[in-house]
Amino acid sequence: MSEHFSWEELTKTDHAELQDENMSEAEKYRPALEALAELLELIREKTGPLFIRAFRCGKVNSSSSGSSSKSQHLKGEAADIRIPGQCGQAQVRNLFATCCKLLVDGGIPFGQLIFEQKEHEDGSWVYWVHVSIGQPWRDVVKCGMVMEMEWPWKEPDPKYTPVKRTDPGGL
């Protein structure tokens, strides 16, 4: 797909029993996944290697707690990213700020950029950045959105708050 993001990586799921179905269903979204890989390459240039989860078939998406039935992941238009070994809230917020500076301040077209978080039943937290491609896959009025997931949220859909930026490089 691109220099650093393979088809296998863009279609990988943590649900091993659904891996073949996930990869097969993703085939019809190849152009979007190629555009997503290009966007991820730009981010990788600033951050170094990324851990990603991108395409999700319907069965994978419905088994992921809090995933929207309208998710851009279902069409290969979005990825959840982290820097390997940097999973804490401050580290993922730093990645979010880096992406914001790159995409927003750099004038690079994108769909959504979201700082997301989830508390597991055991009280531990997981954090990630959601990034998606924009036009022509996403309506122009829904492009360039920078948001943060509100917590706590209730199933089935999380709530999001637009990020108010106080200076060109900060959040």
Provide the descriptors you would attach to this structure in a database record.
single chain, 171 residues, Muramoyl-pentapeptide Carboxypeptidase, domain 2, 30% helix, 19% strand, globular, disordered C terminus
Describe the protein in words.
The protein is α+β, with helices and mostly antiparallel strands. It has a single domain (7-162), classed as Muramoyl-pentapeptide Carboxypeptidase, domain 2 (2-Layer Sandwich). The chain is built from 5 helices and 6 strands. The protein has helices at 7-10, 19-26, 30-47, 58-62, 89-105; strands spanning 51-53, 78-82, 112-119, 125-132, 145-149, 160-162. A 6-stranded mixed beta sheet has the order 1-2-4-3-5-6, with helices on one face. Helix 3 (30-47) packs across helix 5. It starts with 6 loop residues before the first helix and ends in a 9-residue tail after the last strand. Mean pLDDT is 87; it is low at 165-171.
Number of helices: 5
Largest sheet: 6 strands, mixed
Radius of gyration: 15 Å
**The number of domains:** 1
Q: Could you say which overall geometry the principal axes of the C-alpha atoms support? A: globular
Query: What structural class is derived from the secondary structure elements?
Result: alpha+beta
- The helix fraction, in percent, is 25-40%
CATH-defined architecture? 2-Layer Sandwich
Strands, count:
6
Uncertain runs are: 165-171
What does the average pLDDT come to?
87
SSE succession: HHHEHEHEEEE
At CATH level 3, the topology is Muramoyl-pentapeptide Carboxypeptidase, domain 2
Residue share in β-strands: 15-25%
Distance between the termini: 32 Å
Specify the CATH class: Alpha Beta
For the largest beta sheet, what order do the strands appear in spatially?
1-2-4-3-5-6
